[in-house]
Amino acid sequence: MDTTDRAASPPDTTPHPAPGPSRRRTPWAVLALWAIVLAVALPFAGRLGDVQRDNAVDYLPASADSTQVERLRELLPGGESTDLVLVYHRDGGLTAPDRATAARQVDAVAAAHALAAPPKGVPSADGTTLMYPVSTAAPGTDEEARSAFVTDVRAAVRGGDGLSAEVGGDGALEHDRGEVFGSIDGTLMIATVLVVTVLLILTYRSPFLWLVPLLAVGVAALASRAAVYGMVRGFDVVVTGQSGGIMTVLVFGAGTDYALLVVSRYREELRRHLRPYDAMRAALRGCGPAVLASSGTVVAGLLCLLAADLNSSRGLGPVGAVGVLCALAAMLTLLPALLVLLGRRVFWPLIPAYGSEPKERRSLFARMGGSAGRRPVAVFVTGVVALGALALGAFNLPGELKTGDSFTTAPESVSAMATLSAAYPERGSRPLSVFAPTPDAPRVLAEARTTDGVAEAAQGRSGGGWTEIEVFAQGAPESAAETATIEALRAGPGAAYGAHVGGSSAQALDTSATDSRDRLVVIPLVLAAVTLILTALLRSLVAPLLLIAAVVVVWGATLGIGGLVFEPLLGFSGFDSGTALLSFVFLVALGVDYGIFLMHRMREEARRGAPPKEAALTALRTTGGVIASAGVVLAATFMVLASLPLVMMAELGILVAVGVLLDTFLVRTYLVTSASVLLGRRVWWPGKLARKPAAEPTPVPRMADDRVRAGG
């Protein structure tokens, strides 16, 4: 069987000089450099999990009242406390043996651990439930010690024969959340590698080629983890389980996208150049500027998150940017070096022969472009109306995501919280923490007890000039009634004596308010940064505004789709307030990438003198296949987030994946193309291309062969 493409025209018979020493050495030098990078990175890449921080203060708004409470806890004797609630429940009512079992187990817990006070049982009015609040400051802020305490208590608290025994409270909730985040890295890495592997095999249809980009992106992932570890040690950057997981997806998604573009262009150039080195140099010269601009938009968008006040969002900015830069470096240096050294045979069985022509075939995107070119007004109006109708679904998004609904499968702490809410409707199951200056603590305590919505208040530890007061609200956790109580405490003793109000419910309230503020600040910054990059690349004002408008429309339609599926189909009971901002950053930064490849090619055709309609349709036809492959890969990698047991991560993954597919197959294909046909040369205003056709078109390296797809 002939494994090369048949030559449609005779190859160039011009004598080619033998490759010089520098050409032979360059790929090996690049490979050696990356081997050194890998050797240095490996010991540190595995230690990134050791510096990830998932305490409440690492996610909270930097200046919020609840953040001050978390910091003031460290001033108290013993430092931060770990608060649990031991919950015993029987549907038909607790029996005397049940109460004896509970007392015996609670005594065992008190004997094994240094508790702040002897536990006292609080029976429910209906007699079905008995709870024991338990608190200790012994573990302090040591996450492992706090987790071990929760594990020990759960081992001692056991039910049976119809008696349920659960350990809840803020300490247990933090432990369960930490368990999930601790498993994110391994789960995401394995799932992402499998997804990328399958897609690369399907794309390239080669038993060998898929290994090369997968190896390069794997090296980039290790390098990024080591680089972020160095940032943490050198600059005290906050890395959470959330940001670390998202970085993994970004590296594999963006890195594979860049690989698809480089390999596609390299395959094309192998038909025009005898030697792989020359073909790769031409390929990088042709697609390099667009890839650089593409990564630049992603990095710029992520760095805009530094303006966010939410700690978790602000930390994600530099972490994600480092991941994208490592992916870019690997795809523009390591991947080309590997491909050059492996030669043409790596494409077997579809080896691009020198001087050959690819098979003629009318692509799907040529047919799509034909419809946009024949009826641009109808296509544009229909697309805008369809996306606008989808965007209306955003009004159906579920309400604010509550702590108890933040897991796809409820852990023990959430189950205990639900039991307490049902059994004690007259009081909250999680305390609010009021920190008052010690001299004013008696007056703050007195005012707290008379505040509307407060069921109980008691003075706790003092230290560092501050005194902690535990307040139980009458409303259920994160309910409107409890929110009103928090606001009343802050407006009353908080304002009068400089007290701070914190606790889990206060943290959720502050986080939601800060997310609203961050959207107002970060979204305009992202739009401005991306617009500047597009303007510099395309040398136009209209084309960047067209692309920006397109991705904003995609974001709105994507939120609408989320409103139609999150609660009705997937059963998610809430929508995390931070997901809207993060999905916007990713969809704008990543979605504009595909617009860059399309408009960059369109501009090249216009510079050659092609009429506006022909330039738009040629750009779509020649970039459609490879960008479709890249869009599918990126969407699939983000969908991996949907496999995690956290509703927020699942929602983010689904939104970005759906948005990327909308942008790839609808907006870029139909809306941007039809709008470009309608605008004609005005799309390049105020540049030279908008004023008159180029008299003598300047030869520009082609972005992709008219008939070459990503898979060959």
Brief account:
The chain has 712 residues and is α+β, with helices and mostly antiparallel strands.
Summarize the helices and strands and which ones pair or pack.
Elements: H1 21-45, H2 48-51, H3 56-59, H4 65-73, E1 82-89, H5 96-112, E2 122-123, E3 129-136, H6 143-156, E4 164-168, H7 170-204, H8 211-235, H9 241-270, H10 276-303, H11 311-342, H12 364-374, H13 376-391, H14 412-423, E5 432-437, H15 441-449, E6 454-463, E7 466-473, H16 480-497, E8 500-502, H17 504-538, H18 542-565, H19 579-607, H20 612-639, H21 647-679, H22 688-691
Could you name the ranges where pLDDT drops below 50 across 5 or more consecutive residues? 1-14, 694-712
Structural class assignment: alpha+beta
Radius of gyration: 30 Å
For the largest sheet, list the strands in their spatial order. 2-3-1-4
- Strand fraction equals 5-15%
Average of the residue pLDDT scores:
85
Total beta strand runs: 8
Strand count, sense and barrel status of the largest sheet are: 4 strands, antiparallel
Number of separate helices: 22
Large-scale geometry = elongated
End-to-end separation in angstroms reads 18 Å
* Helical residues, percent: 55-70%
**What is the succession of H and E elements?**
HHHHEHEEHEHHHHHHHHEHEEHEHHHHHH
